[in-house]
Structure formats: C-alpha cells, structure tokens
Write a structure and sequence with these properties.
It comes from Vogesella oryzagri. By secondary structure, this protein is α+β, with helices and mostly antiparallel strands. It is built from 21 helices and 19 strands. The protein is elongated, with a radius of gyration of 39 Å.
C-alpha cells in the first residue's frame, strides 16, 4: 500500500501584507468606539428621547376628527318642517402626508371636483399644512368616486347642508346658514346656540394612505341641536305671501309687507315681504331681497294712528263715540289742518270712519304733549317690540319737550312718528285683547303672556265697534270686507320723505285690521310701498290683500262667522271710497 505524499503547508502571506501589531490595536479600538457610539445612540433614543419620538410619530399619523352635530329642525306650529339638515360629504387633503399626485389621477380629481388642476396643485404644495378643504358639501355618490381614485392624503368627512322646504315665502323669517353651518340671517342666526348643538370628536391613527388604523382615545359623540317650533302657521304663511306678491305686482309697487298675529296671544302666524329670495339658491342675492321690511323698515303710519288718538280721549273720559266736533279746516299757526273730503262736523265715530285729520288733531289738543307722548309710549311706539328678531326697528317718537303745536296735531294722524309694520300690528292688540298690549313671539307659546294694560276693557270694546264702520259703506276701506265676518280696522296713506321733503308721487298704502270684530281672532297688517298704478290709498291697495288673507286664514283656523248669514259684500261698482289726507 503506497502512501500519498502531502507537501508541508507554507505561510503564503507575504511579509509586506502583514499588519503590524500596533495597527491591529488601532482598528480594534475604532471598531469598539463605533459600536459604543451606536449603543449609546440607541440607548438615548430608546430611553431619553422615547416620549418625544412617540409624540412626533403620532403627530404625523394621529388625527383628531370632528364629528359634526346635526343642526336642529325648525318647524311651524303644527310640526311641518321649515328647515332641515341633509347629510353631505366634504373632501379634504393633508398636504404634509401627500406625495406628488400622478397626472392621470390629478386630471380625474380635477374633473370630479370641477376645480382647475392648478388650483389643486397649489393646495397640495404647502407641505406644512395638515388640513385643507378641496370641495365642501358634495353628494355622497360624488365623494365615493373621489375616494375611489385612491390618492394618499385625501379623505372625506360627513357634514350637513341646510334645506328650506318653504323656500322664498319664509326666507325673511327663517334666514339661512353659511357653508360652515352657522346661522347668517333670521331665526337661524338668533337661535344659533339652540339649533347648532355641539360637535363631537374622534382621535385616530391613520396610515400614509389616510386609512384609519385604530382609535387612540374615547370617542366624544356629538350633541344634536334642539328642535325649534315656531309660532308660524305654514298654511297662513303661504296665503299671506301669495296675496302680498299678487298685490305688489298688481299695483307695480316697489315692495310690500304683511304681518298676521294671533289677536289673543301675540304669536306671529305669518310674516312676509316682497321682494323675496330663495334660501336654497343664493347664487344671485341682492341686498334688497334680503331686507326684512316688515321688521326693520320705518315709515310714517298715516291714519292708522288715529285709533290710538281716539282711544286716548275715550279712556281719559274726555270724549265718547257720540261726541261731535267741528271738522272744517282750521289754522295752527301758519299751517292749515284739513281733510281731503271735508265734512262740517263729525262724531268721534265719524272721525274714525271718514278718517278726519281735523277731528283727530282736535282730540289730541285736549292733552299736553307729555300726556300724549306717554300714551304713545305705553302703546309700544318709539320702543323696540322685543320680538327677538335681528335688526328689529323701534321706530321714532321724539321727546315731547321738543313738540310744537302743529307737530302734536300731525302726530295724531300719523306724521312725525315712525313705526315698523310689526310694531304697528302689535299695537293693535290693545283693541283685540281687552286693552292690553301683548308681547310678540315667533315661537309657539305653551302659556301666553297676558300683556300690559294700556286702556280699559270698555275702551277697547268701544274702539272695536267704531272701527267696524271703516269697512262698511261710507268708510275708507270697504274693500277690506270679509264675507260672513265683521271686520274692524283702519286704513292709512302716507307720503314718503325724499330728501327732507314729502314727495307727491311716492306713497305707502296701509291697512291694519282684525276679525271677527266681536271676538277678535286675527290681526292682519298690510303695507304696499310706492304703488305706481291703480291708486295709492291704503284702502285701495292694501284693503283687497287684507280681505283675501283674513278670509282664507279664518277658514283655515275654522273660526265661526259673526256676521248675519245674509251679509254680502258691497259690489265693486258701488264702492265710493273716502280718500284720506296725505
């Protein structure tokens, strides 16, 4: 057996390639220091900087989501919805979490949201921002299409958009909300705290694609807003708006207003203005359309003030309905007080029926300026009606110490004092509620306020009886009659001040009345501003609208007639209207 020869193993490392012992030590030291540095850094990050790093990580992926509260529903007195909130979606982005969006997806996003690509890129460019809206209040279907693009950093959230079923006929009462859901006008603004509720919150962790990974805190649920039940009756509101619009159009008037009150509670059953606007579509919205004229506009009420002058005299015991007055023209200083259709003499009842300026001014002269001012103030003139409505007017009643005799005379028939239509309608509750001035309410009352006594109940009864004659043959507002009911009220016509002077071609026509006159249920006040054709006297332009609104409203409420069954309206061709001094 032969043996295999194995040569001896030789050292193949050349001498010049060997490390000197000193160099090996240096390398070992450097490696040790590097390992020590890495270990120290790891300890520093894991122990010393742990909380900071965790917070930084959560800051990049932790998000606090707002859970929107559902805004409270607004209803009429019968539960009919007048303002409701419908769920919609809003698309937002977090630029800090986004990478450049591919061109194809950017084009698709631009098309879906109807936004220019340049605008989207500008929103994405600020990498310091964590939240920016791309499009608000879009349909859930459209939001789903956007999310299907799968663009990291883009998300959706639920919001609510306000919808107004009554549209333009109630826009001045309800108002509207902005895109952020906060009230901007009307009761949406004044009842913001009640309607808005309180938003909730949810804190979550999200991945880079915007998907929720987990909740990191307890969810705080939203608290929805409360339901607001108004005093408005939607049926009467519709009727009032329709008839006011028709009257404004028929007389080619600049504007108009109407107020319907419950004569026994002071609740506002209807309030409308023309022109109006649709709160569901505010793309074109002029300031004049938004103006709630019945609440904020001031005007001189003309002859609709005469019942208060007469009531002051009767309540003080200085006159009776049968007291006679010389009603021929007479002088107060250099000024002449006259009636447009003079009568040599009239009783107090005749002064109301024929709308005599002379008679009214002579009754006012029985009182000192302070006494008359006090009575007007007690009737609600010159002070806010405190309805709670934004921007409501208090009217203007100058301090009595500055009155001249001719000014006291003109104030007795409605010049020199200004009112709002809502304020004037409220004042007539003195005649319908036993002499007490009722507070106004835009919300449905569980327990009505009895009001504040201004005149005796017997005075109010006598005024009701006298004011019926205004709508009967020979009165100034026969067109305000309602078949089957006794109607009491007063017409008024006033020239408008333009540049400090009374214009001869600009008037306001008014009628304020109530029915059934023997047991009042409703007060209706109608104002037509600057009628340009067909007349301008209050009985002519406002009387017919009053009649239609009152007749329809009484039927809606099922109010029993108080007039004889054979009661008939005066035919149009037989109407001989008594014109009022303007």
């Amino acid at each position: 057996m032969s043996r295999v020869y194995s040569p001896p193993i030789r050292n193949t490392v050349k001498p010049h390639m060997r490390l000197a012992p000193g160099r090996v030590a240096v390398v070992q030291v450097l490696l040790g220091l590097l390992l020590l540095a890495l270990l120290s850094r790891a300890i520093y990050l894991q122990v010393v900087q742990q909380d900071f790093l965790l917070n930084q990580g959560e800051a990049r992926f932790r998000r606090a989501l707002v859970l929107e509260a559902n805004r409270g529903v607004i209803t009429d007195r019968n539960g009919e919805p007048l303002a409701i909130s419908t769920p919609v979606q809003s698309i937002w982005a977090s630029p800090v979490d986004m990478s450049p969006v591919p061109a194809a997806k950017l084009a698709a996003l631009s098309r879906l949201l109807e936004l220019p690509q340049a605008e989207l890129q500008q929103k994405f460019a600020d990498k310091k921002r964590e939240f920016v809206y791309l499009k608000r209040q879009i349909s859930p279907q459209l939001a789903q299409q956007v999310m299907a693009l799968g663009i990291p950093g883009i998300a959706k959230q639920q919001e609510y958009r306000r919808y107004y079923p009554a549209g333009e006929m109630l826009s001045h009462v309800i108002g509207f909300t902005g895109v952020d859901g906060k009230g901007q006008e009307g009761l949406e603004l004044t009842r913001e705290k009640m309607l808005a509720g309180k938003a909730g919150s949810r804190t979550v962790l999200k991945d880079r694609r915007g998907h929720i990974i987990e909740d990191v805190a307890a969810i705080e649920p939203p608290r929805d807003g409360q339901t607001l039940a108004l005093s408005i009756d939607k049926r009467i509101q519709y009727l009032a708006f329709r008839e006011l619009s028709a009257a404004t159009e028929a007389f080619k008037a600049k504007a108009g207003g109407v107020v319907v009150l419950d004569a026994q509670t002071g609740e506002v059953l209807a309030l409308a203005n023309t022109p109006s606007y649709n709160p569901n579509n505010r793309a074109v919205l002029e300031p004049e359309m938004r103006r709630n004229r019945a609440v904020v506009d001031m005007f001189e009420p003309g002859s609709t003030m005469k019942p208060f002058t007469v009531a002051m005299g009767i309540d003080a015991g200085r006159i009776t309905p049968d007291t006679w007055f010389d009603t021929r023209p007479y002088m107060i200083g250099p000024a002449t007080v006259r009636d447009s259709h003079p009568n040599p003499s009239l009783t107090v009842s005749g002064i109301i029926q024929k709308s005599s300026n002379v008679g009214s001014s002579k009754i006012a002269a029985m009182f000192s300026p302070e006494q008359m001012w006090t009575f007007y103030r007690q009737s609600g003139f010159g002070i806010s009606p405190q309805s709670g409505f934004p921007g409501e007017s208090s009217g203007r009643l100058r301090d009595w110490q500055g009155w001249r005799p001719i000014e006291q005379a003109t104030m007795s028939f409605g010049y020199g004092v200004t009112v709002s239509l809502l304020q004037l309608a409220r004042a007539y509750t003195i005649f319908t509620h036993g002499g007490a001035l009722l507070p106004l309410s835009f919300t449905k009352l569980a327990v009505p306020n009895p009001g504040r006594q201004v005149v005796k109940e017997d005075t109010a009864r006598k005024m009701r009886q006298m004011m019926i004659a205004v709508t009967e043959e020979g009165g100034t507002a026969v067109r305000a009659q309602v078949l089957g009911y006794h109607v009491a009220g007063k017409s008024g016509t006033a020239r408008k001040l333009v540049g400090g002077r009374y214009a001869s071609d600009k008037h306001i026509g008014l009628f304020v009345g109530f029915a059934p006159a023997t047991n009042p249920r409703l007060i209706v006040a109608v104002m037509i501003d600057e009628p340009s054709i067909g007349g301008y006297y209050g009985g002519t332009v406002s009387g017919p609208a009053f009649s239609n609104i009152m007749a329809g409203s009484l039927r809606i409420l099922g109010v029993e007639p108080d007039a004889p069954s054979n009661n008939t309206l005066i035919p149009e061709q037989q109407i001989s209207e008594v014109r009022e001094e303007t």
